[in-house]
Design brief:
Blueprint lengths: L2 E6 L4 E5 L5 H9 L6 E4 L2 E4 L3 E6 L5
Antiparallel strand pairs: 1-2, 1-5, 3-4
Length: 61
Amino acid sequence: MPQIEVTTHSGDTEVVDVETYNATELVQEINNKNDEHVIALGNSIYSKIDIKSIKPVTVKE
């Protein structure tokens, strides 16, 4: 299962397990102004305007 690191403008950083990760689809969902003001990533809910960055976590073997 892919993991992403979500950093917020309020200073929190969290590693989240997600079913899939596609940066292009995620940016479209975040920028969709016709949708809600929150986004669910894994088991967490974030305010779209509070998201500072999202990047995939690389697992070192």
